[in-house]
Amino acid sequence: MFEKMALGIEFGSTRIKAVLVNENNEPIATGSHTWENKLIDGIWTYSLDEVWKGLKLAYKDLKFNIKKLYNDIPTTYSAIGISGMMHGYLPFDKEGNPLVPFRTWRNTITEKAAEELSELFQFNIPQRWSIAHLKHAMQLNEEHVKDIDFFTTLAGYVHWRLTGQKVLGVGEASGMFPINDTTKKFDATMIEKFNAKYNFHLENILPTVLVAGANAGSLTAEGAKLLDEDGDLLSGIPMCPPEGDAGTGMVATNSITQRTGNISMGTSIFSMIVLEKSLSTYYKEVDIVTTPVGDMVAMIHCNNCTSDLNAWINIFREYSECMGMDIDINEIYNKLYNMALLGDKDCSGMLSYCYLSGEHITECEEGRPLFVRNPNSSFNLANFMRTHLFTTLGAIRIGTDLLVNKENIKLEKILGHGGFFKTEGVGQQILAAALNVPAEVMQTASEGGAWGIALLASYMKHKDNISLRDFLDNIFNDKFKASVVYPDPEDVAGFNKFMANYKRGVCIEKEAIKVI
User: Fold this and answer.
1) Does pTM surpass 0.90?
2) Residue 57 sits in which domain range?
3) Helix, strand, coil proportions of the chain in percent (round to 5)?
């Protein structure tokens, strides 16, 4: 039975999640483990010990739920896939030892390196990209650089330890270093420029790039023990190329075709719009990455989304407990999110910045969560919640405007996924207003990237007979229907007024960084 099923595991920013899909690619069991990044010596990081502890606990939770469903436990699967937060920096020496703590996507410490590389390549290199972190370490003459034998991302690291293979899916690889859209490999010309300018041999330390459907090795006996501490899981299970959360989000929303896009809203927020043609120039606000099959995508990534919103909702949870009320946290979310729909269209002039960390699009190097209002604002719960929902889309709207207004990018629909959309209808309505396009959410939206990487694992056995696009179309057209919310003109006008305040108010955020 389980030998026909595929397993996907994704290392998200707050949760490690495992999803098992049946032979019809329907999610049938999940497991998870909650974790958090830490700011240590000015660096956002997760310890590698926590990586393996969290993986084991998420898989153990999955096994427990499978046992309840089937009164049996799996020893094998048709395939396994690993996904994780894109970007970041994980360098290793020739013995496989980590040289520095994991530097995550959340760090905004590589500005000078990123700018220098963008100028060299004439291609936008964001601060969170792996190559920017390497160049930053080189600029600071960090001792470990001379000892690097291999560097990769979180998904690439976990896959390597499970299989022994130093590979990446092309979508994940495109967040390390630019991809050539013809070869679907790291851009050789840009590698040559890097090597010539910095007297380096970059090609020697990069992982091998694979497209969706390729065999990326198999689970080793050592890897099986790292995943399943009970020892029930057998080695030899095929594994698909490890992908990033951007690529798995595209798969999980079936948005890998031109004029479609998806937006992931959780701790961070990013949108992915599949391009019909190359952009006329490069923008520091827009990353060019790829789909899991190597097609070019405009990605707008912002570091902050729901963390500050969640913190406010937790205040309401604490208030409920203080008043002796035992209310489920999901009900609190539902009630407060729906209150936002009752607020003034423009939030009555109130303003919020959800910046726990720096935000490159608005040129804020650090974060200071901020809420401000006019004395004559209608300060009520509905407007308060609407403001905090609106601001999650503030920074990404700035990047989207560049594509729409300067590059005439056509977007027919946007598909939302992530925790922001768990409360039915509310997140969709806010998203439709923010981007002024129909917003779709599928019933599987909360499964997110873990389901996406499970689908990529499942695709391995079909790759010789069908394209990934057709494979996904068959799944979604048959089983998973999306709900659609069309933009309301009054909501659109209200969000536009909010955005005008948001742009003018960035100076307040920057001043807060200086003085607090």
Assistant:
1) no
2) 2-252
3) 45, 20, 35
How far is the C-alpha of 142 from the C-alpha of 487, rounded, in Å?
A: 50
Per DSSP, what are the bridge partners of residue 265?
Answer: 269
d(CA 5, CA 72): 14
- Helices marked H in 341-392: 381-391
Q: Other C-beta atoms within 10 Å of 222: how many?
A: 12
Which sign, positive or negative, has the C-alpha torsion 277, 252, 106, 212?
negative
What percent of the chain has a predicted confidence (pLDDT) above 90?
85
CATH number for the domain including 23?
Answer: 3.30.420.40
- Looking up tokens 């009520």 gives 380
- Locate the DSSP E strands across 60-166: 79-84, 90-92, 150-152
In the predicted model, residues of the chain with pLDDT beneath 50 are 445
- Any domain includes 371: no
118-155 pLDDT, tens digit each: 999 999 999 999 999 999 999 999 999 999 999 999 99
Q: Whose structure tokens read 């998973």?
A: 480
CB neighbours of 110 closer than 8 A, spacing ≥ 6? 127, 128, 132, 133, 135, 136
pLDDT (0 to 100) of residue 365: 87
- Determine how β-strand 296-302 pairs with β-strand 269-274: antiparallel
Dig out the tokens for 478 from the structure. 């048959």
What are 450's strand-pairing partners? Answer: none
CA 500 to CA 306: how far, in whole Å? Answer: 21
Q: Strand, helix or coil at 208?
A: strand
Amino acid in the structure at residue 489: P
Which amino acid, one-letter code, is at 338? N
DSSP at 291: -
Task: Specify if 113 maps to a domain.
Answer: yes
Cα 178 to chain centroid distance, Å, stands at 18
Pairing of strands 370-372, 413-417: unpaired
Q: For position 103, what pLDDT does the model report?
A: 97
3-class DSSP state of 186: strand
Q: How far apart are the C-alpha atoms of 218 and 215, rounded to whole Å?
A: 8
CA distance 144 to 198: 16
- Confidence (pLDDT) at 253: 85
Instruction: Tell me how many domains the chain contains.
Output: 1
Backbone angles phi, psi at 13, to 5 degrees: -75, -25
Nearest 5°: the CA angle 186, 282, 251 is 55
